[in-house]
Amino acid sequence: MVACNPDAAFPPHQLTSNFSFPQEEEKVLAFWKEIDAFQESVKQSIGKPQYSFYDGPPFATGLPHHGHILMGTVKVGTRNSSGWEKYERYEMLTVHRICTAQDIVTRYAHSNGFYVERRFGWDTHGLPVEHEIDKKLGITSKADVMKMGIDKYNAECRSIVMRYSSEWRRMVERLGRWIDFDNDYKTLNTSFMESVWWVFGQLWNKDLVYRGLKVMPYTMGCTTPMSNFEAGLAYKDVQDPAVTVSFPLLLDPSVSLLAWTTTPWTLPTNMALCVHPDLTYIKIHDAERDAKFILCDELLSTLYKDPAKAKKEKKYTVLETYKGRDLVGLTYEPLFTYFYDKYKDRAFKVIADTYVTSTSGTGIVHQAPAFGEDDHRIAIRDGIVRKEEMPPCPIDEAGIYTDEVPDFQGQYVKDADKNIIKYLKGTGRLIVSATLQHSYPFCWRSGTPLIYRAIPVWFVRVQDSTDKLVANNKETRWVPASVGENRFQSWLENARDWNISRNRYWGTPLPLWASDDYEEIVCVSSIEELNELSGCGILADLHRDKIDDIQIPSKKGKGMLKRVEEVFDCWFESGSMPYAQVHYPFENKEKFEASFPADFISEAMDQTRGWFYTLLVLSTHLFGKAPWKNLIVCGHVLAADGKKMSKSLKNYPDPNLIVDTYGADALRLFLINSPVVRGDSLRFKEEGVKDVVSHVLLPLLNSYRFFHGQAALLKKEQNVDFEYDPHAKQSSNVMDRWILARCQSLIQLVKTEMEAYRLYTVVAQMLSLIDDLTNWYIRFNRRRLKGENGLEDTHSALQTLFETLFTLARTLSAFTPFLTENIYQGLKEFFPKDQSKLGLGDDLRSLHFLPFPEVKQEYFDPTIERQVSRLQAVIDLGRTVRERGRSLPGQFTTIKEGKDKGKQIPARESVPIKFPLNELVVFHPDTEYLDDVKSLLPYVEQELNVRHVVFSSSEKDCGIKYCATAEWATLGKKLRKDMAKVKNGLPQVSSEEIKKYLKTGKLDVQGIELVEGDLVAQRFVDVDALPKDGDKEYGHDGNNDVVVLLDVTRRPELEREGLAREVVNRVQRLRKKAGLVATDDIDVFYSFAQGVGDELKAIIHGSEDLMKRVLKCCPRPWDVQHGEGKEVVIEEEQEVGDEKITLTLVRA
């Protein structure tokens, strides 16, 4: 996109207007679009070191959701070609997860001096697309596709692959993610497909590909085999029949082996019965049925509800006992005769294997080699079927019985269960018929039950390379590390050969041409090679409809070689994405090799068996190393109730509405600060996004607005234009130096955590600094910023506040790109006229063109940070004491909940900060601590609104005592029988003894010696031990370090001052409500109802100094002379103390 207006100016900030985060973000988007900010930033970084990442492509056939938003904010690469993210319960909520993480990492890399190319990718092949077309056209089988024609079928697929691309682009860009949509890549592109062929060709040449018959998970709804990790994506709790069937022995038809199964539809292909060689089996006589059965002695409950009771009642009698190996070789009468003639000489016998268990059934497992992985393995081992021989498999691709099973021909296997059970009952072979509720795998696309089925498929060898895979993975960084070290490593250690072929149509075709007997196979690795071998010309498209008819002459006299029918599993395409997206090795060879492996990838937890796995397998086979250096694995976004998000349940909010209500920055911060980026699941709650606005974004915005207002006030009152000086002499003010040191700590922390890819730790530190800025620095320095200490000090305070805001904006720009851009645009007007002094480059149009700030080591001052930390501790404790308040003599309140519910206790009232108190006592045994707080005494007096502050190290004067508690559950394991002695004796231990324990780490309690760590000792204030001083009431609090005592006694003279402050407070609130700014001059008038207000009037007039200092005027009584002809800005009745007063603000 070419910039519409490279000189566009950002709209000026309106201090008096309500700030709508979503609307202001739209302004930022419009500004970025005008100056083509993203492409301009990329252009500016050309020639810098490259930072590479892999952006796995989403499907454009589904809409984006919250999970995508998170991953995109964190990650640089999502891969979901299996379509698992396309479940309707997720749609829309997994784009937020994508956009957040990815954008943060790439923005941060760019700001740290890297060239970061960002191209969006689209997954356009595979079952998700085909499934949509099958639903649309009513296609249910291969015959339907063949009748239609693969060319027309693929044309239908091509027509929908980009259906929602515009919605994706709108959502991704609305979230602030900078990525190139105009230079995207698609898996259907011929260049991408050709690189996939090259990857496969490399594996073929290394003898890492083979064709084998294997029992695989198979979806009857989509008529294709699936990989094992796909088969695990969608389990459902279902009820299936559980039948016990008899198999009479040929030697003695009066005795039957009993087998149990939950898949009656497989019984027509029964070839054997399997026992465990070491389990004990018994032959019993069943009295009720008058029959003899053989089964495992531990599983009689399959026949009898209570085997012990049944034995007592002589419902059965044990006749003989065997080991499983003793039964091997016995032959039995088949249930069905469909395959008897072909297999009578090698099947229908008892075999043994240790996979059989005694946890359910009868301990005898019915064997159907075409429909069970173990069944097939054992059948080959015992010569029932040959290795390359297809076992009896009388169903078509849709799971319909063929004419090989005439009694059930045309029936869907799952529907046939009941008819097979009925048939068995009629032949007397059904012994028990029940139902079983269990978890069963379903197809993630079609929603149909999966079956296991023997199919000829193409494999990539993996089992022989597990050691290499594990070793390569250990060379990479996982966040969290536990997933890579445990879950993923375990998956690698147990990896099986990978089925990479699918019997489908819309995908990259396997580039294999074979003779009819498969004895000659040619692998093609490029378009040019195909032309050389076949003379087909240089193809512009490699899909099935374009190449299926191409033939290659045999070099072994086998006529013409034809292409095999299969296409690649989409996971093979996803694993090939690093190479195929740049058409490697046909183009960009040097560029790719210089940036491989990727610096970073990220995806959800599922991808330990998906994208992460396929990437690693192919990279290990191709280059002998992992394809990534750093990887963030994310958990899943769930609904607020902990369930998966579901459109039908409507259990999650519309992501668009969330962004339109709170803005993208809020959603980004909420997601990136959640458990998801630590690999855990997140219960998505709208309240969490709302809290980000109120606790992070609004305080930051208000700090910026406050600065702007004070700069305007300086201009108005001093006629001085504030200009930021990046080389100004360091301030001597302690609070200035402290907040700037805090800024450096944040810069340092963000650098450290981002280099370790621990994104989730940054938001908490960001919030901490914003809290320090708003609730400590600005709060403590309002008077300085308003000019009370002279021009030089005001300029120093504004310089500090500007630098703090500017540092915050640059440090947090990757996390909250919209608000930080907005603030930056407002700060720019205070830049020095010679902007080269800033040392931030030549193009300052956007914050996102600027480098990440460097730590200024000279700003660190451990002494000042220690002093302010101690100041904060004292003030926090003082605030807590005020909140606890003072007693109300003679009054009581009732406890409303808990174990003491209903109990009467003395009533208390809090003491608001506006009411001055007489005395604060600060106790600490260390004089350095007291000196630190004493050095900042004015802040203590101002913030806690106290007249006198006493510093003391005297425990006696402050009533300091010591007590100890213990974690009894932990200590009990150590003390055992002696715990009771300690528990009873500890309350009797004196304060002095516990104080001594703090120093020595030893204490004797009832003859039991306790050491350091056994107890938690702490100081407390014994109010009764305080020196008596009239009617003073002290409140107190401590933090195991410092203790404060606050005289909360009511004093009329101080309460009158508090009422005066309350009047000031009410005027300030009205100013804010009216939208006034610091430069707006007003006069304040008041009035009372007839005959009231004399006391408050006297207080107002007795507090003129306070009023003029804060309000710049002293409120006056309202009358016609003062108010006539003046514009009334706002007028409201207020309640101050027990009085009602009407306050009127008019233009001065």
In terms of topology, how is this protein built?
Elements: H1 21-35, H2 37-44, H3 66-74, H4 95-111, E1 119-122, H5 127-137, H6 142-148, H7 150-160, H8 165-174, E2 180-186, H9 190-205, E3 209-219, E4 224-225, H10 228-231, E5 235-248, E6 255-261, E7 272-275, E8 280-286, E9 291-296, H11 307-312, E10 316-323, H12 324-327, H13 340-343, E11 349-352, E12 364-367, H14 373-381, H15 413-426, E13 430-441, E14 450-460, H16 466-474, E15 477-479, H17 481-493, E16 498-499, E17 501-502, E18 512-514, E19 521-523, H18 527-534, H19 544-547, E20 551-553, E21 560-563, E22 567-568, H20 570-580, H21 589-594, E23 598-604, H22 611-623, E24 628-634, E25 637-638, H23 655-662, H24 664-672, E26 682-683, H25 686-718, H26 734-755, H27 762-785, H28 791-811, H29 817-827, H30 862-884, E27 886-894, E28 904-909, E29 917-923, H31 927-934, H32 937-944, E30 946-952, H33 955-958, E31 960-965, H34 968-975, H35 979-985, H36 991-1000, E32 1002-1005, E33 1008-1011, E34 1016-1021, E35 1034-1038, E36 1043-1047, H37 1052-1073, E37 1082-1087, H38 1094-1101, H39 1104-1111, E38 1116-1117, H40 1120-1123, E39 1128-1136, E40 1139-1147
Parallel strand pairs: 1-2, 6-9, 7-11, 15-24, 23-24, 25-26, 29-30, 37-38
Antiparallel strand pairs: 3-4, 3-14, 5-6, 5-13, 7-12, 8-9, 8-10, 14-16, 17-22, 18-19, 18-21, 20-21, 27-28, 29-36, 31-34, 32-33, 35-36, 37-40, 39-40
